[in-house]
Write a structure and sequence with these properties.
The chain is α+β, with helices and mostly antiparallel strands and 207 residues long. Helix content is 44%, strand content 11%. The longest helix is centred in the last third of the chain and has 17 residues.
Amino acid sequence: VIGDPPCVYPDAMLRSFSITYDYLCPFARNANETVVEMLNEGVAYDVAFVPFSLTENHRQDRDVHQWDLPVERVGSGVLALLWSIAVRDGFNDFFLAFHVALFSARHDNAEDINDQAVLEAAAGAVGLDPGAVRSLVLTGVPAKTLAADHTGASEEHGVFGVPTFIHGDEAVFVRFMDRHQSADVERLLDMLSWTNLNEFKRTSIER
């Protein structure tokens, strides 16, 4: 978090957790964006944002892994993940803003987040040098990181979708219906230790 704003959650204890994301998913947007807003407001969380490719997750056994493809051939949403990794690991001060910008490009503007021009525009809008990010993506390091992050989440925590919150040995896939609801995140984190509840799924949602 840039700067040192006063904590607006004075009773919150430091919590460490991971949250998975893929920019294709509106539910990932709801959760990730809310967590970013809470961090920017000063909540005492230590958060790891973990890319998890839904395109890779639907790969057939005979298909090549997304991270083994040339960047110009990666599937839906994957190029955006590679750019996000490059920013997260190479230009971290800009990550939260860029993270939100990519969700907005996809879900507010209906833009193609596999279009390099869209990613360059999002990078420039938050103060990044698009050329520097693109160069880092082309090194292949973000692709290797995507392989490690995606595979690790799947094999170590049984992650199958986004967003999944992970704390210690507990991992929970959730779907928040609304954006900007910090109370939803707080409630979810409180429930992570309630291991006697395995599944709670509504049969319908009135919307």
